[in-house]
Amino acid sequence: MKQLSTILLWPITTSEKLAESFLFGYRKFLICVFLLITIGLAWQAAQIRPDASFVKMIPASHPYVANYIRYKDDLSGLGNSIRVVVAAKEGDIFTESFQTTLKQVSDELFFIPGVDRSALKSIWTPNVRWTEVTEDGFVGGPVIPPKYDGSAESLELIRTNILRSGQVGILVGNDFRSAMVQVPLFDKHPETGEKLDYKEFSSLIEKLVRDKYSSEEISIHITGFAKIVGDLIEGAVQVALFFAIAFIVTMVLLYLYSGSVMGTLIPLVCSLAAVIWQLGILNLLGYGLDPYSMLVPFLVFAIAVSHGVQIVNTITLESATTGANKLDAAKHAFKTIYIPGLTALLSDGIGFITLMVIEIQVIQDLAVAASLGVAVIVLTNLMLLPLLMSYAGVGRNAIAKAKRGIEKTNSHWHLLSVFATSKGAIVAVAVALGLAVLGFYGSKGLQIGDLDAGAPELRPDSRYNLDNEFITSNYSTSSDVFVVMVSTPVEYCSRYETLALVDRFQFYMRDIQGVQSSISLVDVSERVTAGLNEGNLKWRSVIRNQYVINASLSYVPAGLMNSSCSLLPVIVFLDDHKAETLKRVTAAVEQFAGEYGSDEIHFNMAAGKAGFEAATNEVIEMAQYEMLIWVYGVVSFLCLLTFRSIKTVICIIAPLALTSILCQALMAQLGIGVKVATLPVIALGVGIGVDYGIYIYSKMQTYLQQGHSLSTAYLETLQSTGKSVAFTGLTLAIGVILWTLSPIKFQADMGVLLTFMFVWNMLGALILLPAIACLLHPEYRSLKVESVS
Amino acid sequence: MRNITTSIFLLLCMQISSSVASSDRLVQPALLQSEMDKVLLLAIDKAGERLVAVGEQGAIIYSDDGGSNWLQAKVPTSTLITDVHFFDRYKGWAVGHDGVVLATQDGGERWSKLLDGAAINALRVDALKESLVRLQSDASTDQEAYELMEYQLDDAQVALEEGPSTPLLDVFFLDHEVGYALGAYGLFLKTVDAGQSWIYEGHLLPNPESFHLNKIYRTKNGNLLVMGEAGVLFERDDVGESWIVVDAPYQGSFFSAVESDALYLMGLRGNVFRRTEGDASEPRWEKVDIGITATINDSVVVNGDAYLVGQGGAVLRQEDQGFKPFSQRGLRSFSGVEFSEGSLITVGEGGIGKIQLDGVVK
Predict the structure, then answer these.
(1) Which one of A495, A525, A544 would you mutate to disrupt binding with B, by most B Cβ within 10 Å of its Cβ?
(2) Are residues A368 and A335 located together in one domain of the fold?
(3) I want to staple B306 with a disulfide (CB 3.0 to 4.6 A). Which of A72, A595, B225, B260 is the partner?
(4) Which pTM was predicted?
(5) What is the ipTM of this complex?
(6) Which residue pairs from A205-213 have beta carbons closer than 8 angstroms and sit at least 24 positions apart in sequence?
């Protein structure tokens, strides 16, 4: 073990010696190099683009998503569209002014770039028609009468036509007080090949539709994926403001803590440099900033500051106790902090890297961004910072303050050192065990996936979700769409056998709890067959005669079959997208597919928003424990290497485990599900939380090796680094607590959970760690060597 | 020993054949549904006091409490069931797509299949062949009738190859043994043994163009009336054997008939006609303005007044000799109606509906 760890730690110990002589040998030169790199990367960082891609948020390797990607082109008519609802605040839609506005909105949307104009639909577009069966056969026409003139008669005719068109609940609200424009979008423009710019599109819609047509009489409601993404990007940009606030608050606290202007500014500047480096390198590597990785700069900043504080603190103490000069104090700090700092940062970084086991691109990007950020902290805060401090020094005030602190024997840390005595330790461990049990019990209700209605990425009271609620309550369509892709051999999708089986499938699905309704080519065939037979409901069936079926499918709305007739999507509308519902639906589809699927007819899951959520949930449910095992495994291993004692590993890891358990309980109680956004929190929390333990234990070990009893060693540790650990916890918490104000729901969730984890990990390291150490190491208790400080 | 082996073998064969055959809706048992409000239901009848409704995917449901709670029957097929008829509280029949004829002996709880379209196609070919032979041997046959029969036989033979695709649309029994089932393309079947065997009689009706036959109705004087597409209207008195073409008041389809103070015929787009006088050979019709243009699909007489239901949620009540809209109109179409415990029980696109008549009945 010892040899192994020596070998493994060799790079770190060797790099320490090399780095020390190199760093302090070429101070000026290196500072110049750092400066140049920072300027270069700042230029890169400035160019980083907000980015939100749909495919990145879903698990690309999951079979559901793989199926979707395979049939993506055939499903395009179904995919990306927005819905714009024009609603009358008073009265109904049968007024001249309402119809004028509706026409204008419809026209306005028609000309927005990215819109698939041929498929745009509203009662004002000619592709929406009414039909009626008469003794002479079908008659029909556009909903808006050709001779429309705004008169009462022509408005009455619109009402009649709407009823005859069957568009109530689809393009016209169930209460006749609003009307919808369906706006299908091109992901890629068919002619120019240009990708749809969601941010641009979303702001155009706002400007040209919502702002322009909202009035005393009219309200506008917009939903659709493009709008969600637009709102996400817009919301995420607000996060920049939080960064500024976090920066200022940290600065004030840092000054209050250190009492040194340089000791405040230099860690801040170095930490900022870390953020600039991280963003700059990300841009160089071709990454954008999505709403998830948007939060990484906060973390990097907070982690950087906390390490900076350790160094400044060590410099101050060294200057105060030994009276060393600036350079020697900086050198000493570098030597003291380098190994635990590097170990801590390594475990942060590796903790983050374990997120790579989750096969969802945004999480993997987050892992890359965070690991990268931690790596640059090694350069900026473990190396650059002592260099700068070796010139600047902490200042006399800070040294004097530190001296007073050391001389003050009756400090409040005595209170905490009680946990390093056997009595206190038993109490602390017992309370911790109690909390763990409580946490286990409390986390029973923990759910997978998103629990809120509408777009769970945004807050329930966000404008988008209010719009969505308006539309779902006034129209007969759900936004939770689960698409089963029925694949057949070419030209087989409209065969009697296929349609009859899909008919049965839809009937079967309708009885599954959580399913509202479904629609497919079968419905078209059945309805048209009835229509061709004078609208007689007794004919609403798939007819066992291919000629009749073919006649019924002479006009098929876009998206219900592909051009080679080998794919037939069944669009299932669900009540909600709770994990339970999705599981029930996927299990039902699987059962049906197993029972009735054949060589010709396959039931493939799943596209649609709910389909992707089902896939994401499955991946997350599996990855949840895998990730925990990895992150704890890796962090434990690193601790074992550093301290070469299983007992020590337990001392450091147990408090983290308690926090993880309590965090799960908190999630269950707050109704936050395990999802793309919250899964990384555990890894981040553990990765960062381990820092405290490593700093405290390594310090404590030094004192123990000097022959102190545990409680004395612990008190010494508290007096030297305890303060900076507490301060670190605070800085980290400040970095993330502001996220709770984010307009993006998942950022707020991450904020709540990370704040909780940072604070609890800090308390765990300060209270539980010495308590466990005390119980595990009875031999330390008996040592009676007096303090030498 | 050999017997056991044989029976195991037979059992295996049966299982294999059943698993292969189960891919067809004619032999797939109907799936159970816990909620019927999303199911398309097409017809409803009373078995004694029990209500029995039929519809989509072989769904047959029954209620013993006036339509509040429903149970689903065991049905061996899952085709769309279009009509149901009970002679008494136990014996009933239902018909549907793919030529399915079902029967129950226990008031609609369990159903067995009596006939399907494949058998009907064979019956039809046999009947037409026989008829052709008879025409051949009869010297008085005119050439045109013979050619028509030949043409019909060709048609029937093609249908035999194409499979059981013709839907039955209506079923009616005169007593517990004699009954009729009729459907698309002039399909007309008769049984005299409660449905155990059937006779194809489509060619005996004056329907050379094979128009769809939508409904058979027995008037108060015992005559039978067959209604169909394109003004098809045939009548036969209670002893007669041959059908008379009735001069129809319009050339559209008829879907339903009801007799309250007089006989009313209901058709497409609000066309309702009242037979004022005359008999089959010389009827006189009067068009009744019902104020809406919805197709009327079914009707029921309550306390001497007829209630009509139809397309787009139309419900009308007879007032003297006219009809007035009754109850708030919904959007979903009604296909059938019954009266039970003071309420109209409707079936249609939205499953079961209940319209209270208490207090509004005259």
Answers:
(1) A544
(2) yes
(3) B260
(4) 0.81
(5) 0.91
(6) A205/A82, A205/A84, A205/A109, A205/A112, A205/A230, A206/A230, A208/A108, A208/A112, A209/A84, A209/A105, A209/A108, A209/A109, A212/A108, A213/A86, A213/A101, A213/A104, A213/A105, A213/A108
